[in-house]
Amino acid sequence: MIERYTLPEIGSIWSDENRFEIWLKIEILACEAMSNLGIIPEQSLKVIKEKAKFDVPRILQIENEVKHDVIAFLTNVAEYVGEDARYIHYGMTSSDVLDTTLAVQMVQAGKLIKKSLEDFIQVLKKKALEHKNTIMVGRSHGVHAEPITMGLKIAVWYDEMQHHLKYLDEAIETVRVGQVSGAVGTFDHLNPEIQDYVCKELDLKSADISTQILQRDRHAYYLSTLALIGCSLEKICVEIRHLQRTEVSEASEYFSKGQKGSSAMPHKKNPIVAERICGMARLLRGNALAAMENVALWHERDISHSSVERVVLPDSTIIIYYMLRKTRDLIDNLEINPDKMLNNLQLTRGLIFSQPVLLALTRKGVSREEAYQIVQRNAMRVWNENISFQSALQEDEQIMAYLSRDEMANIFNINNRLKNIDYIFTKVGLKQHSN
Prior knowledge:
This protein has 435 residues and is mainly alpha-helical. It folds into 3 domains: 6-87, Fumarase C, Chain B, domain 1; 94-343, Fumarase C, Chain A, domain 2 (Up-down Bundle), CATH 1.20.200.10; 351-411, Fumarase/aspartase (C-terminal domain) (Ribonucleotide Reductase Protein R1, domain 1), CATH 1.10.40. The protein is 63% helix and 5% strand. It contains 19 helices and 6 strands. Strand 1 and strand 2 form a beta hairpin. Helix 7 packs antiparallel against helix 9 (217-244).
């Protein structure tokens, strides 16, 4: 369930009140531009600016009768303005208002999402630095591979979210475009300067070209960007779910006092937030696909995109905002178990050092093929005989003919395997600030 704390901050962007407020602002700005061009009288503009307002219940009442939201809005505004209302919406079509308003709303939502993404990045930075040297095993195909650190794992997430910050900026700029170009985009009954004026006052770019609408590739790009952020959040949460498995137990979600994990099994502590994030990411991908379906419309427009956007735009912005905040809290309060990480690291009894042994032999002049066979032969002994890898190697005369015991000890020194962690952290911009 989505907590109500998301609604006042981002949900209100999609409220009737905010939508009609933007509509009214666009109509008044268009009147200002027309007055500047001598199209409507200054006195009429003064009346419009003084009297124009709206009443949401009344608009909805009218819409129930006329079955057209913009007409219902204009009718209600005219009830307040009177005779001069004839200049409102002059030469314009509904999409001039609707699409320009959507641009404003998407920018408003984008700014909040960006702030939430920046907050999440800071939490990742803090956690990565905190666990920079917390040693654990790295896995490929789910199988133990070589040593890494928990901080390095989080640093990957940090870097990925930096990518998304760039993508989001680009997506916001892509939809920061308005239009007031008339029924089929020809400005037949409008001066193009009206569009320029309205867009400038709304801090939007004036569309270079439009039909009756702005083309929906913009909206699809925006929603695809939100979906991609969701994919990365899902990736993080899938990792946490794996690390919380009983057999692994290297990290887990914070379990608050009084929290219950299962109606049947009192011992359960489940990764419910991570699972929720994974599920919601599917919604974002579905919404992005729906936005792509909106790109192809009939001729200069049809209305098939409108019903879709009334759902996917509010839902996706609210969902990703919620996901970012919940994942931020999840990482900030993530319970990490370094002792269990070390225990798991030792489960394969040193096999995670097989590659440095292989490379050491090749440096001594052994062919890669022969070195691989030698190392793999001893690795199989470890699997089958339950002995340590280092012991198996030291019992192998063929290996010890090339490597001294000191060299072997150096290979199995885990700190030597992690010597470039500082370099990697510096590359991704993760530096510990001195007080």
